[in-house]
Structures are given as structure tokens and as C-alpha cells.
Amino acid sequence: MDLILRQETPDDHYAVEEITRDAFWVFWEEDEDRELCNEHLLVHKLRSVDALVPELNCVAELNGKIVGHIIYTKSWIESEDGKKHETLTFGPLTVKPEYQNKGIGRALMKFTFDKAKKLGHRAVLIFGIPDYYPRVGFKRAGDFGLTTSDGDVFDPFMVYPLYEGALDGISGRYFIDPVYFDLTEEETIEFDKKFPLKEPHTFTPIEVLTDRLEPEAAKAIKNLGFKSLDILKSKSQRELSSLPGIDDKAIETIKAVMKENNFPWGEGVFRPL
Description:
alpha+beta, Aminopeptidase, 2 domains, 3-stranded antiparallel beta sheet, 8 helices, 20% strand
């Protein structure tokens, strides 16, 4: 596979936004706070914020076509004494759906991690699929004494130190650019008109799983408050295993049901992006 990794140019913008829309169309859950896929709008807006790191806004090109994209912004950790320590975050990380599971996402990460280290950055922090990213070196942020800006700790919040000791002596709350929270339904609808009409994603109801679990395990999953199977990928196997009734048998059932519905989940099931 003759994959070219390079910095994004203005000529790439539409193609990047289109593949981002396609890749994330099934990764969101309809609820009171999120009714539309907006990752393609996020990419569009990230390009113009001061926090953007242009050198790390990169694409993967194969046979003249854009098949992947990664974009970084500056973020920071604020210690208890109010001191700020600059870090990075990436996202969305996109691989065109028909090119997933071929190592393109991993290649984009390695390419940009190497560049980020040379640029003098210390660490990359993300919110991502908790049973995938540890395979490429991410660790739970809570193990480093880091929390979200709200003081929370959960497995999808992860960190990749770019060199040994990068976070020694640093702990506190993590903050990202406000643009990530500034995506309204109205502007998403308007922005989406740039692209071909796409049918809304049909969610797989969580009952597809809970109906196959023992009562105690089913109750534990229902108590998460998820409407669909899609969003269960945001929970790690470790997190679910801590719930009442989620034993080894339940874990195997969850893995099987997720696989049947094309949602890889759990430890040891992920191939490269």
C-alpha cells in the first residue's frame, strides 16, 4: 500500500470534511444534547482557531485520494496552583470507511506523534475508544493524576506521553479549546448542505444486547442510560466488568452481540484502524 502522509492543504478541505462525515455518521447517539453528526463541521472550524497546530493537520493519501485525516490543537493541564502546562489533543481522527482496518489510522498517529515530539510537545491527551487506543501506547489519564475539566476520571480519557518523564510532577485538570463545545444544531444543518444528502443513521436499540443477558447483567447495562448499542463502545471492558452481574459470561455475550452488529468492542478484538 503506497500511502502518502503529508500536511493538509486548502485543496484537501472538502474531501477531508466529506470522509469525516462518512466515517462518523454511525458513531453518535441521538439524545437531548446531540442529534446530528457534526464532526465534519468541527474539522472545518478547527482550522481557524488559534489553538490549531498546522504542522500536525495531516492527511493520508492513497492513489491520489484522501483516505484519512488527523488534526491537532493545543490543550493544557491546569495544576492546583493555577499553573498551566501545554499539551496536545487530536480529533477527529478519520479513516474513510472502506479503508478502515488497514493500519491508516495507526500510521497517521505515528507520523504525527514523531512530528509533535520534534516540535517540542510533551504529551497527547484524547477522549477515545478505551479498548483500542491502549494498543498504540495510550494510558489512562487517571493513572497520571489527571482529570477532566469537571474533575471526572473515566477510561476513554487517555494520555500518550511523547517522551519518558513528559508528565513527571504534573497533575491537575485538563482543558481543550472551547470550539469543541461550540457546535450548534442550526449551523450543523446549514453546513451539511454542502454534501450529498445522507439518510439518518438507524440506531441499534440497547435491547438487542440486554435481551440476551442474565437479569442482573441486563439491569446493569440498562442503568447506564444508553438508548442504543452504538454508544456502548465508549465504555471499556474494564469499566463494564466492574458492574453488578457483569461476569465473564456476560462479557463474552457483549463481545458477541457487538461483533454481530459491526461494533468491535472489548480487549483483544481491535485491529489497526
